[in-house]
Write the structure tokens for this entry.
Amino acid sequence: MLTGNMIAQLIPLLITPILSRLFSVEEFGVFALYSSIATFFMVIAAGRYETAILLPKEDKDAVNILALSFLILTGLSLLLMIVVLVFPVAALFDTPELADVMIYIPLTIFFGAAYRTLTYWSNRKKRFRATSVSSVTQATSRAGLNLFGGMYAGGYWEAGHAKGFFNALFSSKGGMLHGVRTWGMNSLVIGSILGYAFGTIQFVRTFISKDRTLLKEVNGASMRRLAKEHDKFPKINAVHALVDEIKNSGVTFVVSYMFSEVVLGLYSMTIRVLTLPLTMIGSAFSQVFIQRAAEMYANKEKMVPLMYATVRRLSFLALPIFLPIVFFGPDLFGIILGDEYRISGEFARILTPWLFLNFVISPVVQVTVVVGKQKELFGVALVGNTIILGSIFIGGFFFHKLEYGFMLLSLLEIIFYIWLCKWVFALAKEADAAHETSIETEQ
């Protein structure tokens, strides 16, 4: 899983210095806004039932949850298609450049959520190699399409223009373009959609070859029973996921509203560069951790040792990534992406302490789902998300400087994550103790 995720995330990371010269800062800003809208719906598009795929002991129940997830996803995607065709949704965001790409939102949501849902199925079956192959397929196709589209939008496929492209590629002046072009936005959006689509197709091929006999177990009665049995996921987990996404998308919306598309583009590049190397490690650990934790909880095994081991390993892996950013962030961003992205390096330097703790602790927080504490986690998430959005708003409204908002955010989130870590470990210790008492009683 780690190898597959490293390859999957390394590909877009390696082409980022090229994309920063093929697309303008404004285009990255508008695409960040588009992605935030799509992701906001994507996280609840299957009713959060996809998360429950890991929980049943029998595959016949799990495959009915899988079918239920796709039924909900298809319905929501069709509804959103009607909405974007009938209503001028882009007008709500005061960004005219969104109008040309809003039609793609339902497709982005469908394939993105389908990819996520089938990832859970693959991990349930412990097909971590298949999950890795699909993630590499998704990342490679998306990166290739972005690269091709960006070069086409810039006219670099035309005869005699290749030299200009290579000269700009090795220039420290960074982005060669300004403003938002139709082909530039289409390249970023369509690359995202087809990346998810190709990854989904890879999962479907594996499912058909290995699990198609389970489809005979799918029926309406089972889906209704399991929907009721796991109704905490749409009722509580979905609300929690939305609150989390309000945090992520909300930051984008607040930055877009209080600042310019250029500042939003610089911020989005900061997050893009920081999260890519972290995702390629953290995603692998998260997916394996929740599968293993769910299995251990079902078998009444102790989860705390697994949690300690996960935090230690992630801390060890993260330090070589974060420390250079703390000391050399602006210079690294300026050299690799171009001088105009030095500000992104300043943002990255400020946010690094918070993102380090987020990276190290986030996988083990999933224990709350395993032990049925989604409601409590929802309340905790509300606090964390309020800190993030409130800090950004204060920085923009009172100081008109995004950097000040990030400083406040990082400080408060450090305190928050230290408390969160203690709380999650206390829950796990309580569950382990209860299982130990239960085993002793049975004996």
User: Anything to note?
Assistant: The radius of gyration is 22 Å. DSSP finds 15 helices and no strands in the chain.
